[in-house]
Amino acid sequence: MRQVQVAGERPYEVLIGAGAQTRLGLVLEGTAKAVVVHAPPLAAAAGAAVETLQTAGIAAEAIVVPDGEAAKTAEVAAGAWEEFGRLGLTRTDAVVGLGGGAVTDLAGFLAATWARGVRVVQVPTSLLGMVDAAVGGKTGINTSAGKNLVGAFHPPAAVLADTDALAGLPDAEFRSGLAEVVKCGFIADPEILRLLTEDPTGRRDTEELIARAVQVKADAVGQDLRDTGVREFLNYGHTLGHAIERIEDFGRRHGEAVAVGMVFAAELAGQAGLLTPDEVERHRTLIDAMGLPVRCAGDWAALQAIMRVDKKARGATLRFVVLDGIGNPTILTDPDQAWLDAAWAAVTGGTA
Ligand SMILES: NC(=O)c1ccc[n+]([C@@H]2O[C@H](COP(=O)([O-])OP(=O)(O)OC[C@H]3O[C@@H](n4cnc5c(N)ncnc54)[C@H](O)[C@@H]3O)[C@@H](O)[C@H]2O)c1
Ligand SMILES: O=C(O)C(=O)C[C@@H](O)[C@H](O)[C@H](O)COP(=O)(O)O
Ligand SMILES: [Zn+2]
């Protein structure tokens, strides 16, 4: 079992490996009650989690929420709060978020808000959840104005990334998770880029890639939980990515939107003279080889309007995470309109 320590006010561990979920009883030892939040496809794993907790003497119940992005709504949160009340969940009890990133984002948000904060243990079951969503304490739901616009910083008490869960994960979801892995490679860890270049499926080195991506995330959130400095670099590819998700009504996988967003950000950095044409091309070639999208279509004016309410924006000023060389992220503020248009042309298939 690999372990990554996340620093902060209350440091915690991310356990990565086969069977990690069975540590649930141990990490919540002494807790009176726990509620396992999950979506229908993960009912069997949630049942096993409830059993593990009960064996450890913890009164555990499961509550079911809709699958995928449909879980991240105010209505679903309100329904879950009602359930917590019915179950008599108190401040010394705990929430367990078991599922993909959508469920762990929701479960974290429920834990942050219930009784003004109860512990959450995250049990991510998708690759994306393991390498990103379950780690770092960003929790939240979507609104009609945009992605993750309502939320709280609420770090988990522990993260159990049980790689056995990946056996049931559809290939397209695995690839979506790989987008966040390659993001970590581009912003901080060239070894990730090397491993993915050798095996773009990510299947040969899965555990190594998870541990490396979690380490990149832990390094950033350990220094900057509240996203005012280095943590912003984890948003590489997300400014356009989130706008695409929003404009497509959250119908596209998060990692797929981020993949196009990274190619866009690379093109933008190319326009700004921060990346060489080869480095821009390296993004496109690797992301494409991984089976992720490098192009998209859409209403450019509408996408730009959405990007202006991105959480990184300040006033009406657009801010993008870009690379000043591979592995060296920086913020590009208020880029020239001509650069934005050229980068957009490059991802829509036109020539920049
Ligand atoms: N909080 C953060 O820091 C952070 C970071 C990255 C992404 N996110 C959020 O995470 C969400 C995306 O997460 P995701 O990609 O996991 O999507 P998801 O949660 O929608 O899961 C994708 C699908 O895979 C299924 N699934 C999950 N695990 C499975 C398994 N082991 N076997 C079979 N099916 C399984 C789910 O039920 C769902 O249908 C987005 O809402 C994104 O905004 C948050
Ligand atoms: O943890 C972070 O910080 C990230 O930016 C990681 C992203 O991969 C993730 O999608 C996050 O939810 C985006 O945060 P947001 O603040 O832009 O909603
Ligand atoms: Zn993301």
UniProtKB/TrEMBL annotation:
GO terms for molecular function: 3-dehydroquinate synthase activity; metal ion binding; nucleotide binding. NAD(+) binds at residues 67-72, 101-105, 125-126, 138, 147. Its EC number is 4.2.3.4. GO terms for cellular component: cytoplasm. The keyword Ubl conjugation does not apply. It comes from the Bacteria. It is found in: Cytoplasm. Residues 177-313 form the 3-dehydroquinate synthase C-terminal domain. The keyword Repeat does not apply. One of its GO terms (biological process) is aromatic amino acid family biosynthetic process. Pathway: Metabolic intermediate biosynthesis; chorismate biosynthesis; chorismate from D-erythrose 4-phosphate and phosphoenolpyruvate: step 2/7. Binds 1 divalent metal cation per subunit. Can use either Co(2+) or Zn(2+). Residues 63-175 form the 3-dehydroquinate synthase N-terminal domain. Its cofactor is Co(2+); Zn(2+); NAD(+). Zn(2+) binds at residues 180, 238, 254. Keywords: Amino-acid biosynthesis, Aromatic amino acid biosynthesis, Cobalt, Cytoplasm, Lyase, Metal-binding, NAD, Nucleotide-binding, Zinc. It catalyses: 7-phospho-2-dehydro-3-deoxy-D-arabino-heptonate = 3-dehydroquinate + phosphate. Belongs to the sugar phosphate cyclases superfamily. Dehydroquinate synthase family. Catalyzes the conversion of 3-deoxy-D-arabino-heptulosonate 7-phosphate (DAHP) to dehydroquinate (DHQ). This is 3-dehydroquinate synthase.
